[in-house]
Amino acid sequence: MTDPGTPERHPVQQRGLYFEEFDLDALYQHRPGRTVTESDNVLFTTMTMNTQALHLDAAWSATQPFGERLVNSMFTLSTMVGSSVAQLTQGTIVANLGFSDVTFPHPLHHGDTLYSESIVTDKRLSKSRPGQGIITLEHRGRNQDGVVVGTAVRTVLVWCRDAAQ
């Protein structure tokens, strides 16, 4: 309820981008970053039933090439993509169509901060679904030193502005 004399305010709801708003020339930087803890890694790894000792067994991992446990690469991928949602697809996505070209060129360690960014590499209207468009995104994750720790190409189906529900 507003006080008399206070101007009426219009609601603004946080959302992702409609098809028309995706910019092929933009570098979308998703902030804040996410500092990854040991608890994050162990919980994600056990929750997804991944028994890989490289994520769970400190003594064994100490004898391996990296000398310590590594963050589960599926956590890296999930966090990289998840950090883009509020800015790009929150409430405007119809469906996640798929991933390709997923890479992990450098490991993520406990205590590292993951920063993610995305570019649009392609966009086109759907031929079979009027009012919807297909966006191809290239996601990249970097640690606090700017080292690339993950990349993925993701294709999504999103609403066009006039057809959004």
From TrEMBL:
**What Gene3D superfamilies does this protein map onto?**
Hotdog Thioesterase
Xref: SUPFAM superfamilies: Thioesterase/thiol ester dehydrase-isomerase
Xref: Pfam families: MaoC_dehydratas
The MaoC-like domain, residue ranges: 28-137
Domain of life of the organism encoding this protein: Bacteria
Family indicated by similarity:
Belongs to the enoyl-CoA hydratase/isomerase family.
Protein's name in the database:
MaoC family dehydratase
